[in-house]
Amino acid sequence: MFTQLRNIDTAFRHIKLFSYLLIIANAFCICFGIYYWCRLVEQKDERIYVLYNGKVLQALSADRKSNLPVQLRDHVKTFHQYFFNLSPDDKAIKASVSKSLLLADLSAKKQYDNLVESGYYNNLISASISQEIEVDSTMLNIDTYPYTFTTYATQRLVRASSTAVRKLVTRGQIRDLKTQTDYNPHGFLIQHWEILENKDIPNTYGNVAVQ
Description:
By secondary structure, the protein is of the alpha+beta class. It has two domains: 2-60, no CATH class; 64-201, Nuclear Transport Factor 2, Chain: A (Roll). It has five helices and six strands. The chain has helices at 2-45, 68-84, 90-101, 106-117, 120-126; strands at residues 47-52, 55-60, 130-141, 147-158, 163-176, 188-201. The strands form two sheets. It has a four-stranded antiparallel beta sheet with strand order 3-4-5-6, with helices on one face. The chain is rod-shaped and about 110 Å long.
């Protein structure tokens, strides 16, 4: 009698233990299924399909932070190209500089006003000098916000008879606007921008004096 009861009690404990293990296994499977489903949805959202020449191509999206240095450098480069790539035409100069001012705060407008007051642009126009810039490098510090940068560039003042080459160094900060527009596709704004150095360097083509 007692042996039979002990066997029933042992069997009941085994069934109880098996039930607990089955519940845990089911809970694990459900949790894993939810996690896997979320991963599939996330990977699906990262896929971008682009229609190009009548063909559907698949691309992968990346979060903003993963390529932040690339976007910051491109924003800085674009700003400098708009601000310094100039032709000897008043309307063209104003149009190009206006585009650059959309990428920066009033510190860039102040630099522009100073150049206007000094007659810099009038000298370019009167001497038929075109101005070109090549951004050599941009040093970034993204460990602190707003992000800081220092840009090293080569500036050329070109006319038919000669070319002047200048070393250009600028510095500033970059703020994230959190919004992007057609005129500011990266959604950044340069602030506290200043020209640290802009001096002639020797070159084999002669010099053009523009004050």
